[in-house]
Each structure stands twice: as structure tokens, then as C-alpha cells.
């Protein structure tokens, strides 16, 4: 459990170690103004003003301060310092921002082992107005990380349901859950994907509602495949290794819902999480099966490892039934998205140019970027089936992220603004403030857009 509220405090003149920030380009000029004692100390620590480096310099008395070379104003500017400095209280001079990185630089996932460090690094901030929101953003990001990092044996559909229930209790929301064979009639795609799992990991559709009924409706949908074997089109062991993270879309939707409710945005929120385990058993759904969706469209199942879009289809249909003005969905949907854009840059799909503009601009401002890919109409014919309304996965592998998004688009009415984000939910290599493992992508971006649209 990460407690960030003790790591970022209002600056009321408390005793603290100063952090003096210099620009790398100004290092030589700055160094010339320092005493020989300071220069010798910096030389002993091999501090040459390289971006991201720092040194600890003794003061004239018994104290000491930090010199840090920082060349950006991203949220991660102070993250490396938070990871490396000794425990204590600090105040930054010569730089504004970076509090989020300071907090997340001290994130650790300790469910299965003792933490590497227990000495908190506390930052005093003069930006008291945004302190509460910064804490909430850090906590939401950490929640995504915790959920994704948790092993599938400890986080199945029932545990996702429990997370939604806990979230509802915090904010006075209402949760409705349909489970197991109850899904067969109303949500047949969710049922088909999850029916082979054991009884205690039965599929379910989790719905949370919150807010004034007459307020603008916004739906958040998150893919909750708690583990993905690939089904009968089984994945190789290397492909299955990280499939505990296949519920990363659900983690994003939960965390975003938490931010929305904590900020008391004036909307009617509808959170939907189709939660399943794509398991292998005698009653697993098969390649070649024709499945009927909640919308009534039939799907020829050409690949049991393309199950995420199936469960999202029923959830999107349900979301649209309430006639929201906006639907945002999050899913660890395709490897093709990673091939196209890598792990750091989630593709954004939407036919709504204004929504795309808002999301892309917010992503740039928050250093939480998205990259728009087209819902290319000419590729829609790749979903054609000889025996059903569509296939779930075209042959050939071309444009896999796009055809998956086109599949989802068929379940969203054209008069509803909709955006699909194919998030990876995993960081394969560590960066300051962003350790290897589960991570949130487009979370801060999405919240910024919702806040801009509705908070005023």
C-alpha cells in the first residue's frame, strides 16, 4: 500500500534540505560562481551538470543541500531525485512542478516481498492549490499499477468485482453484477469467452453508476480479461507470461472512475467492466463457432485469442443503451498496436475529430501522450464473414489494431461520441518514476479531458 499523502506537504517554512536546480546548459557559468570547496565536492561526486544527475553539497554549518541538473518541466522531472536521495524533507529552489513524479518515484509493489526502501523522501510544495489533485493522480496511477502487477491467481473476476464494490463504497455509488450462466441470454459474448473458467472465476459484467440522474451521461468501459491463455488457439508460453496484465483496461477504467468521483464532476457516470478468464476446458468456445452478441449481430469466431473485443462488444452495447453523450473504452487489445507504436504510445481511435483534438492536446500537456490511428473504412470489409455478420479476427494479420477498433465501432451508435484506447498497461523497462511492470497510460489525459468538458 503506497501512502503518498505523507510524501507531499504544503510548504509552511518547515526545516528542509534545499534542492538547487540548474539547467545543464548553464552548468559551467553556475560552477564558476561557486567556492573552491563546493567545486571540489562536486568534482568528488563527478557532477558535471548532466541532465538527471545530482550531488549532495555540505553547507557552512552541519547541514547540506542538493544540486540537481534538470532540463525539462515534465511530471517526471523530480522522479529520479525521489528515487535516489536519502530519506528526509526537501524543498525545491529554481524549479516548479514535478510533484507527481516525486510521488511516483517512490512507488513500490510490495504485495509479495518486503519493500526495497522504507525511508520516505518528503517534498514541500508551494502549489497548495493542486496538492489534493496531485495526490489523487498518484494514487490512481498506483492503483492501476497494483492491479496489473498482481498475479492472476490473486486477481480474478471476483477480485475485480470486489475492487468495484470498494470503489462504490468510497464514493456512494451503486454496483450491479451479473455472473455466470446469468449472462448467457443477455450478454452471450461475455458468457462464451468466460464459461470455461472454474466456478469461482465465473465471468461477470460489473456495472457501477454514480452521480445525478439528470446530469450528462459518460460511460467508461474497461476490458477485464484477468488471465488469457488464448483459449483453444492457445498462446505459446512466452505469450502467456504477462497475461495477468490483460485486465489492464479494467484497471484504467476503475482508476479513472475514482478520479471522476473524487473530483465530484457533474456527470452521470456509468462504469462497465466485463470480467472473465479466457480458460481452456471441455466447454471452451471454439474456432468456427458463430456467437450472437447482445446487439443481435452474429460473430464467426475465427480466433479464440481475439476474445477481448468480444467481451467489449457486449459491454459497449450495454453502455450505449443508456444513451450517454460520451463513451471511453480502455483495453490491452492488440499486439499490433505495440508493433506499430511501441509500449509508450497508446493508439487512439475515434471518428469524433473534436474529441480526438481534445485528447491529443491533453496528452501533450500532461506528458501522457496518445497517437491517433485511423478507423479506416476501407478495412471494414476485412471483417466480412461467409456465414455470419462478421468475424472477430481477419486472416492475414494486416492492420490488426485498426480492424479490432473497427470491430468495436460496430457496437457503438454513430450519434454517441466514442474513443477507444489500446493501452499496453505495462512498462517493459524502467524510467524515472515509472518502474518496470504495470503502469497507467492515457489516464491523466482522459481525466483532464473530462474535467475540462464537465467541471466548468
From TrEMBL:
Listed name of the protein = Leucyl aminopeptidase family protein
**Family membership noted in the UniProt record:** Belongs to the peptidase M17 family.
Which Pfam family, just one, is annotated for this protein?
Peptidase_M17
Key words, A-Z = Aminopeptidase, Hydrolase, Manganese, Protease
Hydrolase is among the record's keywords: yes
Q: What's the superkingdom here? A: Bacteria
Please list the residue ranges annotated as the Cytosol aminopeptidase domain. 303-310
- Single GO MF annotation: aminopeptidase activity
Amino acid at each position: 500500500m503506497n501512502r503518498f499523502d505523507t510524501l507531499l506537504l504544503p510548504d509552511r517554512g518547515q526545516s528542509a534540505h534545499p534542492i538547487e536546480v540548474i539547467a545543464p546548459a548553464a552548468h559551467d557559468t553556475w560552477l564558476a560562481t561557486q567556492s573552491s570547496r563546493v567545486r571540489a565536492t562536486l568534482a568528488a561526486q563527478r557532477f558535471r551538470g548532466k541532465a538527471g544527475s545530482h550531488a549532495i553539497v555540505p553547507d557552512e554549518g552541519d547541514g547540506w543541500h542538493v544540486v540537481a541538473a534538470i532540463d525539462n518541466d515534465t511530471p517526471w522531472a523530480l522522479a529520479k531525485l525521489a528515487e535516489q536521495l536519502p530519506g528526509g524533507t526537501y524543498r525545491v529552489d529554481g524549479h516548479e512542478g514535478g510533484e507527481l513524479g516525486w510521488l511516483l518515484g517512490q512507488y513500490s509493489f510490495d504485495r509479495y516481498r518486503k519493500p526495497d526502501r522504507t525511508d520516505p523522501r518528503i517534498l514541500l510544495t508551494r502549489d497548495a492549490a493542486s496538492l489534493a489533485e496531485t495526490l489523487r493522480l498518484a494514487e490512481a496511477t498506483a492503483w492501476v499499477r497494483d492491479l496489473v502487477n498482481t498475479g492472476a491467481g490473486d486477481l480474478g473476476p471476483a477480485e475485480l468485482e470486489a475492487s468495484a464494490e470498494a470503489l462504490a463504497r468510497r464514493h456512494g455509488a451503486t454496483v450491479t453484477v451479473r455472473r455466470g450462466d446469468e449472462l448467457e441470454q443477455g450478454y452471450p459474448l461475455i458468457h462464451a469467452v468466460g464459461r470455461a473458467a472454474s466456478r469461482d472465476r465465473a465471468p461477470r459484467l460489473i456495472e457501477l453508476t454514480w452521480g445525478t440522474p439528470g446530469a450528462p451521461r459518460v460511460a467508461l468501459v474497461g476490458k477485464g480479461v484477468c488471465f488469457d491463455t488464448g483459449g483453444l488457439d492457445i498462446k505459446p508460453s512466452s505469450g502467456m507470461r504477462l497475461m495477468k496484465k490483460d485486465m489492464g483496461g479494467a484497471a484504467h477504467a476503475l482508476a479513472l472512475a475514482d478520479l471522476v468521483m473524487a473530483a465530484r464532476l457533474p456527470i452521470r457516470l456509468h462504469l462497465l467492466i466485463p470480467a472473465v478468464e479466457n480458460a481452456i476446458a471441455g466447454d471452451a468456445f471454439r474456432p468456427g463457432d458463430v456467437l450472437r452478441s447482445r446487439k443481435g449481430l452474429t460473430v464467426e469466431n475465427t480466433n479464440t485469442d481475439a476474445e477481448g473485443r468480444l467481451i467489449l462488444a457486449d459491454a459497449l452495447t450495454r453502455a450505449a443503451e443508456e444513451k450517454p453523450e460520451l463513451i471511453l473504452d480502455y483495453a490491452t487489445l492488440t499486439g499490433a498496436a505495440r508493433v506499430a507504436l511501441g509500449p509508450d504510445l497508446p493508439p487512439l481511435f475515434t471518428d469524433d475529430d473534436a474529441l480526438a483534438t481534445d485528447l491529443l492536446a491533453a496528452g501533450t500537456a500532461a506528458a501522457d501522450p496518445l497517437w491517433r490511428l485511423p478507423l479506416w473504412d476501407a478495412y471494414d470489409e476485412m471483417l466480412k464473414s461467409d456465414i455470419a455478420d462478421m468475424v472477430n479476427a481477419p486472416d492475414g494479420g494486416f492492420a490488426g489494431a485498426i480492424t479490432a477498433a473497427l470491430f468495436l465501432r460496430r457496437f457503438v451508435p454513430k450519434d454517441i461520441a466514442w474513443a477507444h484506447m489500446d493501452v499496453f498497461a505495462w512498462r517493459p523497462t524502467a524510467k524515472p518514476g515509472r518502474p518496470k511492470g504495470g503502469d497507467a497510460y492515457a489516464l491523466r489525459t482522459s481525466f483532464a479531458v473530462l474535467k475540462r468538458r464537465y467541471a466548468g
